[in-house]
Amino acid sequence: xxxxxxxxxxxxxxxxxxxxxxxxxxxxxxxxxxxxxxxxxxxxxxxxxxxxxxxxxxxxxxxxxxxxxxxxxxxxxxxxxxxxxxxxxxxxxxxxxxxxxxxxxxxxxxxxxxxxxxxxxxxxxxxxxxxxxxxxxxxxxxxxxxxxxxxxxxxxxxxxxxxxxxxxxxxxxxxxxxxxxxxxxxxxxxxxxxxxxxxxxxxxxxxxxxxxxxxxxxxxxxxxxxxxxxxxxxxxxxxx
Length: 240
Known about the structure:
The structure is a single chain. The chain is α+β, with helices and mostly antiparallel strands. Among the domains are: 30-96, Hormone Receptor, Insulin-like Growth Factor Receptor 1, Chain A domain 2 (Ribbon); 144-219, no CATH class. The chain is built from two helices and 16 strands. The chain has helices spanning 2-40, 206-227; strands at residues 44-48, 52-56, 61-67, 70-76, 83-86, 93-96, 102-107, 110-114, 119-121, 124-126, 133-136, 139-142, 146-149, 169-175, 178-180, 194-200. The protein has a two-stranded antiparallel sheet. The protein has a two-stranded antiparallel ribbon with strand order 3-4. Strands 5-6 form a two-stranded antiparallel ribbon. The radius of gyration is 44 Å and the shape is rod-shaped. The N and C termini lie far apart (168 Å).
């Protein structure tokens, strides 16, 4: 009988000790959470224990780390990967890039750096470079493969809207040939294959000159008829 009582007493003592240890563990954990929350709120202007930072100073960005239905806010100097900093009137926020393959972006639609398995071209991320471009480091570069650049040809006729005379200024152009590069050579951006320049045109066209000559002949004829009075002139003016 006495032995059973001792066993029961020992059982209750062990149970009480176990409960005491659990209370100590819970207290330490709560203290750590409280200290962690205080540290998280050091850079905040406004903070809560449940959601972290709610408002940051003017020079910092508010980053919301979403976990399921809840989120935890923190104030950061620069936004993490996949986000960009958007400054606002009341608060500066870290906004997520629209494309998941974008590591850095200028705004939600314009990427400035892609993830390692993608290539950047004009603000977009591609698995392989679009047609007319080639990969260079982490980007796609516009260019082509040529290793021999020919000489410039002759300048074309100076024209303006299909006319070669009658106006003061026109345009003329010239071209040069390019030969394709061997596959083992490194791609380089394409050089200019054509160029144009401003050129001076003839103000008067040949037809206009003939018209002016006829007009001058008629003027001389009228002058001669006026001087001769009513006398009939049978010979052409150039035979006199």
